[in-house]
Amino acid sequence: MKVPFRLNTLAVAFGLAGSLLAGAAQAENIKIGVVIPATGPLTQYGDMVKEGVDTALEQINAAGGVNGNKLEAVVVDDACEPKQGPVAANRVVNAKIHYVVGPVCSGAAIAAAPIYNNEGVVVVTPSATSPALTEGKNFTSVFRTIGRDDQQGPFAAKFIAQTIKPKKVAVLHDKQSYGQGIATAVRDTLKADGVNVALFEGINAGDSDYSAVITKLKSAGVDFVYYGGYHPEMGLLLRQAAEQGLKVRIMGPEGVGNPEINAIAGPAVEGMLVTLPADFASNPKNAALVKAFKDKKRDPSGSFQMGSYTAVKVIADSIKAVGNDAGKVAKHLHTATFETPLGNLAWDAKGDLKAYDFQVFNWHKDGSKTPATK
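The line above is the sequence of Branched-chain amino acid transport system substrate-binding protein; the predicted structure tokens follow.
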């Protein structure tokens, strides 16, 4: 009976050793914080980012991971609230996570960025477009895989001036970092191009009645409206403008390009103009990646899926090149050029892309979008 007992003891020992080894392997996973709005009115944007991150992790891990280590996503909720940005950042730092995809919204990103940078956490946001995130900050570890508002805003304004050719324009915004920033860029470019901007005004995000500002639009006699902000307010503006007989086209940035806007605006959403990242899903070079998204019932053509996929990919490629050292990864991102689903990407000293492709789309009441030509 002693021999079986010894065998059982060895079996237990080997079992413990195996468990410890497995635990050690698990502990060596490279964690990537996914800082998104998991709660609040903008959760759809978090879902978009998560779809891109999940697809990237699945592909990278299936191919053996990065230098033998698997990547692991850790979701951290900041609700897209500026006051929650630092809270989320401290959670990331305390969890000893050295890489982040996000934050999603500019206000939260701006509030959190100094913490990430001071702690040496590499941040790649696929969606925060405010120039204030990087301009004049001398950050070394904050990057984005999307263009800035001062790229997107002038692009939208040029389309308005050259293609729409309105006589009198109103520019509205939600008084927040992202919305007001891009609206200001649109206004300034329109004025420089000789377009009459009759009204520049903020509305309160979260309100349910915008009849007062719609009355102002009617009184001003505008024939085109640009709105800087997110889809909940844009949806209400569209619906209430239609209800009050204001027959003008309204345009917004990528923050309004959310399928949820159809439920808010109803038929009034038809013909809304929106600037979005180029439709990278239509590029034949991305066919296999598009299939990988669709196989998991994910949308490869949303505003932020390809950008968040790319954020994970450039982090992983940098770790593969220089090792799992956040400081070295940040330096590599500043100096290398990456082949990605968004094209060949390179960053300047501020962490902004040297070039980025926006397009204008017509949004339709069935939730689809088509390139806008007029």
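Note on the example: Confidence is low (pLDDT under 50) at residues 1-27. The longest helix spans residues 2-27.
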